[in-house]
Amino acid sequence: MTVREDAHQQHQERNEERNEERNEGRGAERDAPGPDRRRFLGYVLAAPTLTVAAQFGEAVLAPAPALAAAPALVPSLPGPSEIYDLNDMLTHAALPTANLITIRIEADGSASFALPRAEVGQGITTSSAMVIAEELDLPLDKVRVSLADARPELLFNQMTGGSNTTISTFTPLRVAAAVARGRLLRAAALELGELLGSLTAKAGAVVSSATGRSLGYGELAAKAAAVSDAAVAVVLKKPSEFTMIGTAQRRIDALEAVTGRKRFAMDVRVPNALPTMVCRPPTINGTVRSVDNLAEVRAVPGVTDVVRISTGVAVRARTFGQCIDAVRALRVTWGPGTAEGASDATVQRKLRAAELPLVVPPLPLLTKAVDARFTFHFSSNSALETNCAIADVRSDSAEIWASLKTPIVAQEQIALQLGLPITAVKVHVTEGGGSFGRKLFHDAAGEAAEISRAMGKPVKLMWHRTDDFRQGRTHPMSTSRVRATYTLGEVLTYEQRHTSVATDFGHGLGEIITASAAQLPVGDLAFSETIFALTQQSPYHFGVTTQLLSETDKGFNTGSMRGIYSPNVRCAQELVVDELARRMGKDAYDFRRRHLKEERARAVLDKVAELGRWGRSMPSGMAQGIALHPEYHAFVAVLAEIDCRPETTGRKVHDAYTGPRVTKVVCAVDVGLAVNPRGLEAQMMGGIADGIALALTSGLHLENGHFREGSWDNYFYTRQWNTPPELEIVVMPPTSDRPGGAGELAVGAAMAAVACAYGRATGTMPTTFPVNHGEPLSFEPLPTTPPIPASPVDGLDRAF
User: Cα(426)–Cα(318) distance, rounded to whole angstroms?
Assistant: First the structure.
């Protein structure tokens, strides 16, 4: 053998090796630069049919650094969340158990995946299916995504929150799918008796380029299975090779949703699980002292059981209508709750007293300051689907069905509540009709378990809509005190002191250890401070910048709601930015653009200013507002136009608040890599509607220990007559090879842009939100006793 021949042979061997990698990793070259070409470790698991999982710990899961813009004259140091944010923490917490999440190839050629997250309308089953379909070279309709039951072994890897699902599952799903693809190719090579290099995977089949023969994945599933666990190295597709990721796809559950076949908790059929409701106290968290007509209510037609529980009096009957009649018939003597006598004014005084001090005073003759204080009232995170759950508790076991974003916490705490081992409690996660942070808590599931044990029977618990508004979770009331000092056209300092009614983080990071720590007398504040520090950031170079949190008053049922602190903090800052620009004689858009830290932020701001024709002439009483929000390695900018003219604000709609109308919104969003641009657009639309509501109309009025709103009729979420007739959403070209957070992104920017537009249209910076909160109620509040209204007869009086 000559040296020349030896070199040729080595070249052939290298080519063969590369061909093998090409088949397993879509043309990936082992020594190519960049994170996408790194080798990943996955597993083939022992199973009758091909079952695969991903390994953990790859450094490439860390977010790519953002490109820095040119600094302003007085640059700001990066805040904690610009270095390491909540999403990073959740992603890294999920890594150690990534190899426990598996994909299975079925005999019919489909791929099955049990997603350890909650689908509540945000479209993560679709995006997960797209990621699997991409790396497995399988048609999207051949990927079956279900929701996993509670799996305590997953630890922090079964929490749905912080816009983290797509980020944390993106690479593990790709690795597992790539392992499956490689195994299928190898099985086909053996079955066909051909070289691996001559085979390609396409549309759910392995095809030979030499003979044209093919085998479907279903035919290979058993042959590709392993008799023992084995580690496998794979290389993933380059982004340039994507044919599914980054394309606009319809939701995989769309047909079921519009035809009514989609199954929610109340659609699950459990033998003898009858409708159940609870008679609740007239004030927040009141307690039962006595039930004065127990025997009488037990005799109501259809009623099977009436029992006292920790949150009220539970009624089980043949129909929900009979439950409503029984709840209304109950005469209960109630003890005080946790917010007796509280009102908006009393809570506001507590917040004022708990404010942390500002430390930088304006210096006369040297600097000037913008000083402002903003108030954000309680708001409801009620979804269209009310709180509900099914529970079947026996002496030695329990089974729960509910839409849960932290099912491990639910399983562990319900087991503790029932005195059962965790292994005796099964928790099934169902699809949810919305969440907005509420389903991070298992209020309904825990209550259903308590009722089922007390009655000794299965129950199908549903909260009434009024229960949701008056006893359910709310976004806490808060204030933001802001001071920005400036001189000679430059901002020198920016201080923001956000003070809030305590946010309940009793769900922890998805398991009982952190959930318990978050409820300790000191631990809860430490948890809140950590979440605040890891989520709040300023996108601007404003010199020495500090954003601090203080909390007070734990007497309310609170929770995160689409961005936790971000919408209120961002709204306050953007209004101050507008005021800074005005005082310095600068255009609001140009002022923002000059002070931005990131090029990606500048790009989305430029896009909305261009498409929205920033600065165009508008009639008196109409104006534009512009705002930007960075979150979880993503950026969004919103331009809003508002009509505050009397002929608009004076519109009359029966029992409604009309007020100003947002007439146009332009939104530009950069999430790095958008897995499903169509789904991302839908998320932005929802966030924009939320932002409009928070700025203008949707708030709760607290009076004498209860909220006056008791239904969607009373709570003015953005209605059709207040939605913008013109809406344009631009998904920016990919700026990364990995996705950023999107679920909550648009809320803060939309709220801030609408608030800024309102201030420019009226000539006065708004400081209370929603802006209509101080106006006379446009509805007659429901009574607190009985706690829920009678069922409507025909609804014709509500038809317009």
Answer: 25
Residues in Cβ contact with 48 at an 8 Å cutoff, skipping those fewer than 6 apart: 222, 225
H or E element at residue 531: helix 523-535
Nearest Cα to Cα of residue 463 among 275, 306, 299, 291: 275
* Residue range 509-551, pLDDT digits in tens: 999 989 988 888 877 778 899 999 999 999 999 999 999 999 9
Specify the length of the chain in residues.
Answer: 800
Helix axis angle, 124-136 to 165-192, nearest 10°: 30
pLDDT digits (tens, 9 = 90+) for 671-686: 999 999 999 999 999 9
Q: What is the mean pLDDT of residues 779-789?
A: 95
Residues 171-183, mean pLDDT to the nearest whole number: 94
Looking at domain 344-380+473-769, its CATH class is alpha beta
Check: CB of residue 548 under 8 Å from CB of residue 530. no
240: β partners: none
Q: Which residue in the block uniquely carries the two structure tokens 């799996």?
A: 151
Residue 525: per-residue pLDDT: 79
Contact between 737 and 170 (Cβ < 8 Å): no
Residue spans per domain, the chain: 19-258, 265-338+387-462, 344-380+473-769
Kindly indicate whether the domain formed by 265-338+387-462 is annotated with CATH number 3.40.50.720. Answer: no
Beta strands 702-703; 706-707: pairing state: antiparallel
Contact between residue 45 and residue 183 where contact means Cβ atoms under 8 Å apart: no
CA 128 – CA 169 distance, rounded (Å): 8
Closest CA to 398 of 410, 375, 415: 415
Q: Which CATH number is 19-258 given? A: 3.30.365.10
